[in-house]
Amino acid sequence: MSSWTSGVVNGGVSFWYADDGLPVVREPLGGDASADVVIVGGGYTGLWTAYYLKQAAPFLRITVLEQKFCGYGASGRNGGWLYNGIAGRDRYAKLHGRDAAVRLQRAMNETVDEVIRVVEAEGFDADVHQGGVLEVARTPAQLARLRAFHEAELAFGEKDRELYGARETAERIRVADAVGSVWTPHGAALHPVKLVKGLAAAVERLGVAVHEATPVTEIGQGRAVTPYGTVRAPYVLRCTEGFTAALKGQRRTWLPMNSSMIVTEPLSERQWEQIGWAGRQTLGDMAHAYMYAQRTADGRIALGGRGVPYRFGSRTDNDGSTQAATVAALREVLVGFFPSLAGVRVEHAWSGVLGVPRDWCASVSLDRSSGLGWAGGYVGSGVATANLAARTLCDLVQQASGQGGSTELTALPWVGHRVRRWEPEPLRWLGVQGMYAVYRAADRREAVTHSVGSSRLARVADRVAGRG
Ligand SMILES: Cc1cc2nc3c(=O)[nH]c(=O)nc-3n(C[C@H](O)[C@H](O)[C@H](O)COP(=O)(O)OP(=O)(O)OC[C@H]3O[C@@H](n4cnc5c(N)ncnc54)[C@H](O)[C@@H]3O)c2cc1C
Questions:
Q1: How many A from CA of 268 to the centre of ligand 1?
Q2: Which residue has the least CA distance to atom 9 on ligand 1?
């Protein structure tokens, strides 16, 4: 182990908790209970759903059951990109037509504003900075993908998406070898834990019963079963994202994929002068094994990417600790982007799980006959999407219970989407490991050959993974 890795805090759920403090865990469920709606999972999806349901129908008795504490999952560990990307838009365009996908995209753009609106109205104090999203290209092949991406976005009606050359990119941020970038205003950087803590407190204030340290072992029609009792309710909503595979009967529903992050020590004024990045845009790239980063409110860089992507048998979590090799790989990405940070100290590293459906499409559903609902499969884009999903689940419950009709949200193309399950092991493990090995190889090849076309390797991996 090299000297710089020895002082790195690894795990502890995430840096965001080290920064803001781990919460005092709320009381677990005290025995059998009943409710109008029971929500399994206290991340953004579950909490936003409780929030909007209570706003729409204050009389509803709503219970949230969370296995550890609210924000224990990806909602307390993410990169803090609140942005308008949604997993599966292109596939939804193929399945339901371009207009339907354009409506979905518009709804995502509005969702970024909606989250910011509630954060301000409720006083969450989540370090939100609306600097937009900047994605850079660093090789000719990445530039070709960037241009194609920009064209595709314009065709989707995203007229405010801007394309920058090398010089305009450098005026915003000095990334080594950057040859171009695209920017959209529909994005903000935020502190994930401050958001989830604020949301949990707001939901409680509205009268929702939130039970933590309460794992649900089984979800069935009209019930959520825990070791401490069963909560019965006509509507049971599964909001467990990357942890879904641990629930009875759900092993092959969504694959739990790891994403890992590192955060630096606060950078000096001089270091920031060298880098620029005064606009605090969230930063990504066009590599196949892509990175994502934000400049935090206290002047650090938090940067993530794929580490060991998937653990055999859908094992998910170890309180966020990640492999030393992943930490080293992410640091390499950081220094590759910003060579002036070669001596910077990485303070904290962690990982979390994403939910990945077989066709990589996020979805939201409520089965009216059983009252069972769910939302997720956001892959890596859930900070904003969870809010749209929650508002949609709220409308679906209102509709099913006769309190409301169909709405713009219930008519979006991701509602009620079904997809086949993942393959059993060992095929699942082999497939995902292979896919990421191929993506990394494709990135290396594109960097070395300077070819303009995307590596054929990556296209093959896309097809095998079900993304193509
Ligand atoms: C490292 C990382 C970086 C990311 N960066 C970004 C980003 O910058 N931008 C972006 O848009 N998205 C990002 N994502 C994805 C985003 O964080 C998630 O999509 C989003 O937080 C999902 O919210 P959720 O509530 O659906 O799931 P989670 O936040 O995972 O919440 C699920 C909750 O359910 C609980 N739970 C699970 N099983 C049970 C059970 N059986 N009983 C009771 N409770 C249970 C869990 O403890 C957890 O609290 C990132 C994810 C990771 C891991």
A1: 32
A2: 81
Among 378, 379, 387, 391, say which to mutate for ligand 1: greatest number of ligand atoms within 8 Å of CB: 378
pTM value? 0.94
Running along the chain, 468 residues long, what does each successive block of 10 average in pLDDT? Answer: 70 96 98 98 98 98 98 98 95 96 97 98 97 97 96 92 98 98 98 98 98 97 98 98 92 87 97 98 92 97 76 67 90 96 96 92 97 96 98 98 96 95 69 66 70 64 58
Q: Provide the CB-side half-sphere exposure for 185 (13 A, CA).
A: 5
Q: What angle do CA 413, 418, 424 make, to 5 degrees?
A: 145
Instruction: Locate 410 and state its tokens.
Output: 């219930």
The rounded distance, in Å, linking the Cα atoms of 306 and 318 is 16
Ligand 1 pocket, residue 254 CB under 6 Å: no
DSSP code of 65? E
What's the CA gap between 439 and 164, in Å, rounded? 25
CB 414 within 8 A of CB 362: yes
User: How far, in Å, CA of 34 to CA of 209, rounded?
Assistant: 11
Q: State whether the beta carbon of 51 lies less than 6 angstroms from ligand 1.
A: no
* Beta carbon of 47 within 6 Å of any ligand 1 atom: no
Pocket of ligand 1, candidates 51, 63, 241: which has the most ligand atoms within 8 Å of its Cβ, to mutate?
241
| 459, 461, 465, 468 alpha-carbon torsion, rounded to 10° | 0
Does residue 28's CB lie within 6 angstroms of at least one atom of ligand 1?
Answer: no
